[in-house]
Amino acid sequence: MEGRLDGKRALVTGAGKGIGREIAKRIAECGAEIFALSRTQEDLDSLKAEVPNINIMNVDLQDWDKTREEVSKIGHIDLLVNNAGVGCRLPFIDTPKEEIDRLYDVNVKAVFNVSQVIAKRMIEKGEGGSIVNISSIWSRTAHPDASAYSSTKGAVDNMTRCMALELGPHNIRVNSVNPTFVITNMTKGQEHTVTSLLERTPMGRFAETKDVVNAVVFLLSDQSCMISGESLRVDGGLGVY
User: Fold this and answer.
1) pTM > 0.85
2) Angle at the Cα of 219 from the Cα atoms of 56 and 162, rounded to 5 degrees
3) Which of 51, 71, 200, 204, CA to CA, is 20 to 30 A from 165?
4) CA-based angle 12:80:233, to the nearest 5?
5) How far apart, in whole angstroms, are the C-alpha atoms of residue 132 and residue 177?
6) What binding partners and quaternary form does the record give (predicted)?
């Protein structure tokens, strides 16, 4: 079966709900041993009840040292998905320092932190690996009230390319997945807030969770063994503008 991940060990951040939860479940279905990280114990407990063989980790990614300590405990990881993220919709001139710090702590600094720990282990083992960073189409386009969020995703895109450059000699691939607005249980009913995106989407629909999950699993698997440093848009063609 294409996309199988048998024998691999994978870590997914932000795995308690939404896209991250579905990514973790799919990776487990594909045969990998999965470590699911979230700051919300209740979400982890329900995930564990649903998929008993998943290993759960209750970690607040805004705590740099604690994150490093806990991630170091799990040993070698072959596949990493930096999915955890937070958002903010405020005008540029009204965005307070506290919100900027929160977004950069989770969306950027946590990617640095977790990836550093995991990449070092990958290099030590010498068998390569794959890292997928969840970014956004907002990394490339301007939207009202999104300067803080968009700037973090722009940072993720360029970090992805730099990581691919430096880690490539160790056979570690690094890519990002850049979705449009994704319909999840958490975002249902919010479609009206981004109608302008839908109007400019050639395929005429927003993404579903499975669309993002499929892209992530492809980039983790050997089916994409020669792809690195790419930002894969999952946007129904919106990015052609």
Assistant:
1) yes
2) 95
3) 71
4) 90
5) 7
6) Homotetramer.
